[in-house]
């Protein structure tokens, strides 16, 4: 199973995690903006405003990564997170239910009954 390793230096490692998560959220926002543009639900003014805001957010994130010197750590974390998502998707059966892991004990049946 893939794990995510946070750097040894606490503040820098935490900054890298936060920036990586914000980058992922920004990617999702960009995909949603493109979907809405293609569907015609945004006016030209909204498209321009949205584009400016997303560009500003991206520039701010890049500046923060450079100032905090976490570029490489963020890239590594993004790769680790991508691997975690891929692993999770591979563990889902075709019927949409997670596969069992063979674990036993209280956490193996979280949210269910103890039968």
From TrEMBL:
<protein>
    <submittedName>
        <fullName>Gas vesicle protein K</fullName>
    </submittedName>
</protein>
<dbReference type="InterPro" id="IPR007805">
    <property type="entry name" value="GvpK"/>
</dbReference>
<feature type="region of interest" description="Disordered">
    <location>
        <begin position="88"/>
        <end position="115"/>
    </location>
</feature>
<comment type="similarity">
    <text>Belongs to the gas vesicle GvpK family.</text>
</comment>
<dbReference type="GO" id="GO:0031411">
    <property type="term" value="C:gas vesicle"/>
</dbReference>
<keyword id="KW-0175">Coiled coil</keyword>
<keyword id="KW-0304">Gas vesicle</keyword>
<dbReference type="GO" id="GO:0031412">
    <property type="term" value="P:gas vesicle organization"/>
</dbReference>
<feature type="coiled-coil region">
    <location>
        <begin position="47"/>
        <end position="74"/>
    </location>
</feature>
<dbReference type="Pfam" id="PF05121">
    <property type="entry name" value="GvpK"/>
</dbReference>
């Amino acid at each position: 199973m893939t794990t995510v390793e946070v750097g040894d230096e606490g503040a820098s490692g935490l900054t890298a995690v936060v920036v990586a998560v914000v980058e992922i959220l920004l990617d999702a926002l960009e995909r949603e903006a493109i979907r809405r543009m293609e569907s015609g639900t945004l006016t030209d003014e909204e498209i321009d405003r949205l584009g400016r805001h997303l560009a500003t957010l991206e520039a701010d994130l890049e500046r923060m990564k450079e100032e905090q010197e976490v570029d490489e750590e963020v890239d590594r974390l993004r790769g680790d997170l991508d691997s975690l998502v891929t692993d999770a998707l591979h563990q889902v059966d075709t019927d949409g239910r997670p596969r069992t892991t063979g674990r036993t004990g209280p956490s193996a049946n979280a949210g269910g009954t103890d039968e």
